[in-house]
C-alpha cells in the first residue's frame, strides 16, 4: 500500500503509542512518499526475505524496479544480522524495515554499499532532536553507534546482478526504545559466550531522545536514504569515503579483527577506510586493507 501525503503532520506520537502514525510519517517523508511504496505489516519472518523473493521474480534488467520498495514490520520472527545472527526486538521498541531497489551498478560496483548506507543513517538520525548528535558514529562495516554502544545495524543482500544493474535489499534495524530490556536479553546470550565473541552492547535512541518513536525515526531515515541511494548509484562509495572517515568511532584506536567472531586474525590501529570501503589497519608490519566478510571488529583490551 502506498502512503498518501497530507499537508500538516499530526502531533508527535505519545510515548505510550508505539505504532507508526502513517499520516505523520508520510508528511515527514515528503514528496518521495508518493514514489516509494511503503508497506507496514504486523508480523513477518524477515522483511529482507520478503523483498528478496519479490525482487528475484522481476526481470533482470536496470528498469525492473523503477522506484524502491519499503517494507516495515513491527515483529520479525526470523530477523537476522550479519553471519545470520538473530536480531532481538520487542514490537514497538525497534524500527525494522527493508528497502529493495535496483542500482545501476554491477556486482563489483556495490563495494562499500553498507558503509554508504551507514553514513546516510547517521545523517538521518542526527536530523532528529537528539542530545549530543556527535555521539552517533559508525563502526566498520555496518553498525551505527550511540556513545559507543550499538544503535542500529545494516544487512545488505543481493537478489541478482547483471553487467549494468544489481537488485539489492537493504535491511535496517534501529533500537528506538527498550534499551534496558534489550541489554538484559543480550546479556543472557553473552553469559555463556567467550569474551571475544561478544558483540557491541546495545542501546536505544531513547537514550539521547526521550520522546523517540518509530514514526519520526522511519521518516528521518528514509529522508536520508533516498538521496544516498541515488548518489551511490551514480558514484559508488568513493564519494562517501570522507564522510565515513569523519564519523569513524574507532579512528586512531587499537582494534582486533576476529574470524567468525572468535579467532584473532589481525590487530592494529584503525585508520579509516579506503575508496572501496575496506578497513585500513596500521600494524607493526605495515598498513593492511581488510575486506568485509566473515570478520568482526572489536576494540583491543584496554583501548582508550
How many domain regions? 2
**What structural category characterises the helix and strand content?**
alpha+beta
Highest CATH level, the class of the largest domain: Alpha Beta
Number of helices: 6
Mean pLDDT: 87
CATH topology of the largest domain: BirA Bifunctional Protein, domain 2
What's the architecture of the largest domain, going by CATH?
A: 2-Layer Sandwich
Any low-confidence stretches, pLDDT <50, length ≥5? 1-8
Beta-strand percentage range: 25-35%
Cα Rg: 19 Å
State the end-to-end distance: 48 Å
List SSEs in N-to-C order.
HEHEEHEEEEHHHEEEEE
**Globular, elongated, flat, extended or rod-shaped: what is the shape?**
globular
CATH superfamily of the largest domain: Bira Bifunctional Protein, Domain 2
Give the neighbour order of strands across the main sheet: 1-2-3-7-6-5-4
- Number of β-strand runs: 12
| Fraction of helical residues | 10-25%
Report the biggest beta sheet as strand number plus sense, adding barrel if it closes.
7 strands, mixed
Describe, in plain words, how this protein is organized in 3D.
It is a single chain. With 304 residues, the protein is of the alpha+beta class. The chain has 2 domains: 223 residues, Bira Bifunctional Protein, Domain 2 (BirA Bifunctional Protein, domain 2, 2-Layer Sandwich); 49 residues, SH3 type barrels, CATH 2.30.30. The chain contains 6 helices and 12 strands. It has a 7-stranded mixed beta sheet, with helices on both faces. A 5-stranded antiparallel beta sheet has the order 11-10-9-8-12. Helix 1 runs parallel beside helix 5 and helix 3 crosses helix 5. It is globular, with a radius of gyration of 19 Å. The N and C termini lie far apart (48 Å).
Amino acid at each position: 500500500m502506498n502512503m498518501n501525503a497530507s499537508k500538516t503532520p499530526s502531533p508527535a506520537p505519545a510515548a505510550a503509542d508505539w505504532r507508526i502514525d502513517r499520516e505523520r510519517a508520510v508528511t515527514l517523508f515528503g514528496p518521495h512518499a508518493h514514489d516509494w511504496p511503503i508497506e507496514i505489516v504486523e508480523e513477518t519472518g524477515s522483511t529482507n526475505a520478503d523483498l528478496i523473493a519479490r525482487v528475484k521474480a522481476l526481470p533482470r534488467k536496470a528498469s525492473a524496479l523503477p522506484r524502491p520498495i519499503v517494507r516495515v514490520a513491527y515483529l520479525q520472527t526470523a530477523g537476522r544480522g550479519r553471519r545470520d545472527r538473530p536480531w532481538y526486538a520487542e514490537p514497538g521498541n525497534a524500527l525494522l524495515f527493508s528497502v529493495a531497489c535496483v542500482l545501476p551498478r554491477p556486482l563489483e560496483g556495490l563495494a562499500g554499499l553498507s558503509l554508504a548506507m551507514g553514513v546516510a543513517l547517521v545523517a538521518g538520525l542526527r536530523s532528529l532532536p537528539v542530545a549530543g548528535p556527535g555521539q552517533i558514529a559508525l563502526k566498520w562495516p555496518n553498525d551505527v553507534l550511540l556513545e559507543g554502544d550499538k544503535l542500529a545495524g545494516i544487512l545488505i543482500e543481493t537478489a541478482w546482478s547483471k553487467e549494468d544493474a544489481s537488485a539489492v535489499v537493504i535491511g535496517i534495524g534501529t533500537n528506538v526504545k527498550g534499551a534496558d530490556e534489550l541489554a538484559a536479553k543480550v546479556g543472557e546470550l553473552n553469559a555463556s559466550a567467550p569474551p571475544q565473541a561478544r558483540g557491541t552492547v546495545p542501546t536505544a535512541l531513547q537514550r539521547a531522545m526521550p520522546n523517540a518513536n518509530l514514526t519520526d525515526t522511519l521518516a528521518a531515515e528514509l529522508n536520508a536514504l533516498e538521496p544516498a541511494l541515488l548518489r551511490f548509484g551514480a558514484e559508488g562509495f568513493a564519494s562517501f569515503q570522507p564522510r565515513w572517515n569523519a564519523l569513524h568511532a574507532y579512528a586512531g584506536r587499537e582494534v582486533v579483527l576476529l574470524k567468525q567472531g572468535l579467532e584473532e586474525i589481525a590487530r592494529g590501529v584503525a585508520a579509516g577506510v579506503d575508496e572501496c570501503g575496506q578497513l585500513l589497519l596500521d600494524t607493526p608490519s605495515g598498513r593492511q586493507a581488510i575486506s568485509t566478510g566473515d570478520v568482526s571488529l572489536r576494540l583491543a583490551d584496554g583501548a582508550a
